[in-house]
């Protein structure tokens, strides 16, 4: 196994183990077993469990961010961008459902992880807020609204809608009405 493949296997195993057992309950031995490597091998890639966890979260966030630019570029207007973002978001949530498991989502994260999550989140938020600003300037949506609030409503609405449809209604990402939620959001933002 190549060095980068081994690193990715360790990150995948960490995601699974930490999701099942929580951060405090996760043992490096279990992560090593899940990755098919020795415990010492993990420390060749990550200096501590905190570092491994931080990198795991950042790696997942980076995957989302990598697809975000293409997702937004494929839309001609804010409505299409919201529709595309909805689909991208649903696919990400469906394929990384372990991140939404209660032991991971509600635990006390290490400080370095909190800081990385904050940086990643702020970059994502700024990207969407920039698109909202462009739509306001082009008069596609009302310019008398707060772009930060609009951004929060878009992101929060899409996340909640995807989670409800994926886990509450057991739909696949393709079965979700991405166009419908985008239309509804834009209708509330127009002049």
Automatic annotation (TrEMBL):
<feature type="domain" description="HTH tetR-type">
    <location>
        <begin position="4"/>
        <end position="64"/>
    </location>
</feature>
<dbReference type="Pfam" id="PF00440">
    <property type="entry name" value="TetR_N"/>
</dbReference>
<keyword id="KW-0238">DNA-binding</keyword>
<protein>
    <submittedName>
        <fullName>Transcriptional regulator</fullName>
    </submittedName>
</protein>
<dbReference type="InterPro" id="IPR036271">
    <property type="entry name" value="Tet_transcr_reg_TetR-rel_C_sf"/>
</dbReference>
<dbReference type="GO" id="GO:0003700">
    <property type="term" value="F:DNA-binding transcription factor activity"/>
</dbReference>
<dbReference type="GO" id="GO:0000976">
    <property type="term" value="F:transcription cis-regulatory region binding"/>
</dbReference>
<dbReference type="InterPro" id="IPR009057">
    <property type="entry name" value="Homeodomain-like_sf"/>
</dbReference>
<dbReference type="GO" id="GO:0045892">
    <property type="term" value="P:negative regulation of DNA-templated transcription"/>
</dbReference>
<dbReference type="InterPro" id="IPR001647">
    <property type="entry name" value="HTH_TetR"/>
</dbReference>
<keyword id="KW-0805">Transcription regulation</keyword>
<feature type="DNA-binding region" description="H-T-H motif">
    <location>
        <begin position="27"/>
        <end position="46"/>
    </location>
</feature>
<dbReference type="InterPro" id="IPR050109">
    <property type="entry name" value="HTH-type_TetR-like_transc_reg"/>
</dbReference>
<keyword id="KW-0804">Transcription</keyword>
């Amino acid at each position: 196994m190549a060095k980068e493949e081994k690193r990715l296997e360790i990150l995948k195993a960490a995601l699974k183990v930490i999701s099942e057992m929580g951060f405090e309950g996760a043992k490096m031995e279990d992560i090593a077993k899940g990755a098919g490597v020795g415990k010492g091998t993990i420390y060749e890639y990550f200096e501590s469990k905190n570092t491994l966890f931080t990198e795991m979260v950042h790696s997942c966030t980076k995957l989302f961010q990598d697809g975000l630019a293409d997702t937004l570029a494929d839309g001609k207007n804010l409505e299409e961008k919201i529709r595309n973002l909805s689909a991208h978001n649903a696919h990400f949530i469906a394929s990384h459902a372990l991140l939404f498991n209660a032991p991971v989502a509600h635990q006390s994260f290490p400080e370095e992880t909190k800081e990385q999550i904050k940086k990643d989140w702020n970059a994502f938020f700024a990207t969407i807020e920039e698109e909202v600003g462009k739509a306001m300037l082009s008069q596609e949506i009302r310019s008398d609204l707060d772009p930060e609030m609009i951004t929060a409503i878009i992101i929060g609405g899409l996340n909640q809608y995807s989670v409800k449809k994926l886990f509450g209604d057991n739909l696949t990402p393709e079965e979700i009405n991405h166009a419908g939620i985008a239309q509804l959001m834009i209708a509330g933002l127009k002049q």
